[in-house]
Specification:
This protein is an alpha/beta fold and about 325 residues long. It has 11 helices and 12 strands. The longest helix has 17 residues.
């Protein structure tokens, strides 16, 4: 829909989800790269995207961050190497130490919590089941905390029926931190039904930010014609927000910026929900709202379902500068 000059714009009510966007782990990871650049100067190497957002990655590249997928891509250097918020396998840390690289670990503390849980279960003689998505960096990092074969990945309820475990009484489970609450609950219920003795986390592994953002979308989605989730396609928590909106009855699109908006979906709507994944900066939310303001007479209402005051300290190597 293109608004012609002189024609009145149709009204559009925007319900803005709160909380949305950056979580404390993402803020900490981005700050770690910024502080390292300030302390050591460029280049600062970063293994994997520090967070799953193209805008953030490109802005850090412009300041001197160099992103690599594996440490072998980094030449001999005294420059710092930062591990992303998603966490890394122990072999990556060992490789960095073996090369005498100045490694700074920006793993989200809530991901580190899952790593520690898995290790404790293993030391207590339990086989660990990890509920998560194959290939996601967080899952790769968590599975890499223990010897090969010690952790088994469970992606769906169907996977549980295929498990062949010699000792069903010494089991524990942990979960990826960015899962859909509904999906994970279904899988965990199936796990506990099949393995009544399985041990779970003392405190839920799915992080507060994932929980809060999904709750806000559930609140908003039934009251709007469509939902936009600002985030990257490789961001697990952003994809889950899109799924939550659709389950609540609202057509949803995941976009990285205004150029990706499918106006065929949003052409005749009168109400719109907007949220953002935990790695999406607020400037992109504002850019999306500007795009709609060009076509509609918008009225914005913020729907808040939780207050967030969580913050995490920087990695110890960078705290003095902070």
């Amino acid at each position: 829909m293109n608004v012609q000059p002189g024609r009145m714009k149709p009204p559009l009510k925007i319900l803005l989800c709160s909380p949305r966007g950056f979580c404390a782990g993402v803020v900490r990871a981005i700050d770690a790269v910024e502080r390292a650049l300030a302390k050591y100067g460029p280049p600062v190497y970063v293994r994997h995207e520090i967070v799953h957002n193209r805008y953030v990655v490109e802005s850090l590249k412009a300041k001197g961050a160099v992103f690599v997928e594996e440490l072998e891509e980094i030449p001999p250097t005294n420059a710092p190497v930062i591990f992303s918020a998603h966490g890394v396998a122990k072999e990556v840390s060992a490789e960095a130490q073996g090369r005498n690289l100045l490694a700074i670990d920006a793993t989200c503390p809530l991901v580190t919590k899952v790593h520690r849980e898995a290790e404790i279960h293993w030391k207590r003689g339990r086989r660990v089941l990890l509920v998560g998505h194959s290939g996601h960096p967080e899952v790769v990092g968590t599975m890499g905390q223990l010897p090969e074969g010690a952790v088994m990945l469970v992606e769906s309820v169907e996977d549980i029926g295929k498990l062949d475990l010699p000792d069903e009484k010494n089991l524990a489970y942990v979960t990826q931190t960015t899962l859909s609450l509904d999906d994970s609950l279904e899988i965990i219920n199936a796990l506990t039904k099949r393995f009544p003795a399985i041990v779970g986390p003392h405190k839920e592994d799915i992080c507060y930010a994932t929980t809060n953002r999904q709750a806000a979308v559930k609140e908003v989605a039934p009251h709007v014609d469509a939902v936009i989730v600002v985030g990257s396609p490789n961001s697990s928590n952003s994809q889950r927000l899109r799924e939550v909106a659709e389950r609540a009855g609202a057509p949803a699109q995941l976009v990285q910026g205004r150029g990706e908006i499918d106006w065929a979906i949003f052409g005749n709507i009168t109400s719109l929900g907007i949220t953002a994944g935990a790695s999406a900066p607020e400037v992109l939310v504002e850019e999306i709202m500007d795009a709609f303001a060009e076509r509609y007479d918008i009225a914005v209402e913020t729907i808040s379902t939780a207050d967030e005051s969580v913050s995490f300290p920087l990695p110890k190597e960078l705290r003095a500068l902070a």
